[in-house]
């Protein structure tokens, strides 16, 4: 399969580096398969691994991945197979055994770093959520390197996980926003949340009397959950989230190519559904997604809006998407064009008024000028868009129309002609005007004649305007061209007869005597 795929991409003019990136294999592997015949490739990949096995059909993929990334775990291999073949039904133990056999046969050694953790008693349902941050370096599609940052959540009982990524370091407001998204993802919150001593949420441990940052303290007071802060040099007390961070780095992020942050977050959620929360947990021997269905009933509900956002005129941030919208309560709300900037944080501050008809207020700065307002929609999955936030496409067309009118002597007639075209082709006005613009440039001396002809015959179409101009130009130039050709070579034009007149005719014309 790998041999066929490599040669197929090669025939489509893919470069070796592009083939390697597309198939997640090394360039030497691509070169190796390109130099092989089909029989040689089959012999190479069909070296015996004992009796016929279920994954033999995918052996060349697995072998190529392990040769390129020897450190890959069987769980990663399993995830990559499911990503490429979603309908593949195979257990984790089957993949683990098959990868082990391939490593032995082809002598692909894996380096294992073992970290010891103290056993932690199982937590009751809905009791505890653990949170931590991490960062990775990823290769981009243009073969550069970018640093990414993520926040990870895990329910202590079910091990159900959630994560969010961004391409800049987290701020306290980012942390609060991600907490809110996690609560929406889980459908509620736990009694307590466990953190490391991170500067985003804490100022000091203070011998057990925790000092949180003012912003995060306001958030905790509003959501009313308990904060459990780990002591320094005590990672075992939050070993679950430590393992989750390691799992995300080592399974999802490892060797995966970055395109853009929206795509990366979408793929992260797909990975959680496909692998992170679906595969059987090695400690509980259960699937986190299945256990979560029970634990979800023990979570405490949270409102979709923080009260201190609206009643105390405070707000939290939202990220502006490339299409100049923000997300709020499962809907998208537009912001003015140009709010999204390529080299900017792209954050806006929102608050919701506590009126009968709630209004979403959006600001560029926390206490800055309001850039837009929307009535809060009770529906879901909708785009609420202010018409002033779309491009004024008519402005450019109108300017083009006025410029074209200025080229004609009878501008009143021209204006009436272009109005007729606008009414007849409202969706294609710009295309119609562009054709006429080319005609004006090509036949400037004929455009008034063409306009009169079109208005007389009621031909309100740019293509007909162009055809008439071309026809008139042909009638004007053809006699001159033919006479010039005749004098250059009269033998080629026997059908042309030069008329003759008496000398008296010319004398009469010139006013002389015969």
Automatic annotation (TrEMBL):
Keyword hit for Magnesium: no
Keywords tagged on the record: DNA recombination, DNA-binding, Transposition
Pfam short name (any one): HTH_7
Single GO term (MF): DNA strand exchange activity
InterPro entries to which the protein is assigned, alphabetical: Homeodomain-like_sf, HTH_IS21_transposase_type, Integrase_cat-core, Resolvase_HTH_dom, RNaseH-like_sf, RNaseH_sf
Residue ranges of every copy of the Integrase catalytic domain listed in the record: 120-296
BP terms from Gene Ontology: DNA integration; transposition
Domain of life: Bacteria
Domain HTH IS21-type positions: 1-66
KW Signal (keyword) present: no
Family, as annotated: Belongs to the transposase IS21/IS408/IS1162 family.
Protein name as it appears in the record: IS21 family transposase
Species, as recorded: Cytobacillus firmus
